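Subject: Protein record for review, amino acid sequence with backbone structure tokens
Why sent: The fold of this protein is of interest and is recorded here as tokens.
Enclosed: The protein record, placed directly beneath this head.
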Amino acid sequence: MPVMSERNPLLMILSSAWRFSWSILLIGFAATCLVRFGPGFGTDERELDFRLSNESIEEIRKDAGAENVFEIYYTYLRNAAHGDLGFSLSLNRPVGELIQQRYTTSLRILTLGYVAGWLAAFLFAAIGSVLQARAIALWGTVAGAAILCVPSALLAYLCYLAKAPAFLVVGLMIFARVFRVIDNLFRSARYKCHVLAARSLGLHEVRIFTRHVLSDTSAELIALGGASVSMAVSATIAAEAFCGEPGLGQLAWKAALARDLQLIVGLALLI
């Protein structure tokens, strides 16, 4: 059989970047279609003013965005290429200015919640692996399952009632989603041949964990860490919306309620 030649790493990077760019463009177009064809798009409270004539009302509807969806998205991308992300009609501010004012709050909540959730899940799983205590894994599994049974919006509302910080919502959601995976990785690594041989030679469990179990599962842990970022982002939106944090998540919530097309598309591409 012919030997398959390895792919050029540069070509793989370029191919991934190309697919990623198309994904971003399709996501932005999907967000544009959802808002443009959603019920109530383009309505304006000024249309309820009986003093306006039919011509004035038609002009208001035209200005509110009655053009073709392809034209809307093309105009947005053309302006975004020049640094203009549009104007928020609901908040009466430029979209770029709103994002610049709020992204630090979202970044703080996202980072603290992500680190706290991962640290708690990793420590619980590591302690259970070193001590070989099934009770720790059982309690962690039960706690994670209980959290997953609660919608993120309800969890954020409960944290708001308890006056807990918003990043706690993100941390709990991350813990619930990654603990069981980490625990399964550590448990399967404990029964590999070289780990059993090290244990039979009398090596301490801490050394076995750091030298063998952790090194064998490092690739899977890194992949899980990257995949869980999107989970933290979705939890951040609910945490900010219900806990009153002035971040991008709360901004996205307000934009969705107001059907603010320019703001929603900009946040969709950013997130």
Observations:
- The beta strands are 87-88, 93-94.
- The mean pLDDT is 82.
